[in-house]
Amino acid sequence: MLSSYLLQAGAEGAAGGGMAVMLIQLLPLVLIFVVFYFLLIRPQKKRDKEIQKMRSALEVGDEITTAGGIIGRVVSLKDDTLVIETGSDRSKIRIARWAVQTNNTVHDDVAE
Fold first, then answer.
1. What is the CA radius of gyration of the chain?
2. Tell me, what DSSP letter sits at residue 59?
3. Rounded Cα distance, 63 and 75, in Å
4. Which residues make beta-bridge pairs with 83?
5. Three-class SS of residue 75?
6. Which residues of the chain have pLDDT under 70?
7. What does the pLDDT look like over 7-37, one tens digit per residue?
8. How far apart are CA 84 and CA 71, in angstroms?
9. Distance (Å, rounded) from C-alpha 52 to C-alpha 66?
10. How far is CA 97 from CA 8, 26, 36, 106, in A?
11. Residues contacting 1, CB < 8 A, separation 6+
């Protein structure tokens, strides 16, 4: 009788302690996700937002560099594409707006 009582008390204690052990084991995993969010995911989203803002603010006459390394001057803009002029022979290339890597033209932001 006493042994069955001890077994039952031990099982109840293990069930309550098991929950605490499980929470302690999950805590490092949760901390890893939080660290990854603040060190990797959040800064990447911020960079993506800045690049998208730069691509939407392109103007005719801006000098750009594409993701493929082509340097040219913007001749015309459309919704998803733009035409750039490259080289001394002024050849024109139509590219997708997402392919613009950098805008090499410095603009004076009067609004800011």
1. 29
2. -
3. 10
4. 76, 94
5. strand
6. 1-16, 108-112
7. 454 545 555 578 889 889 999 999 999 999 9
8. 9
9. 14
10. 69, 44, 30, 19
11. none
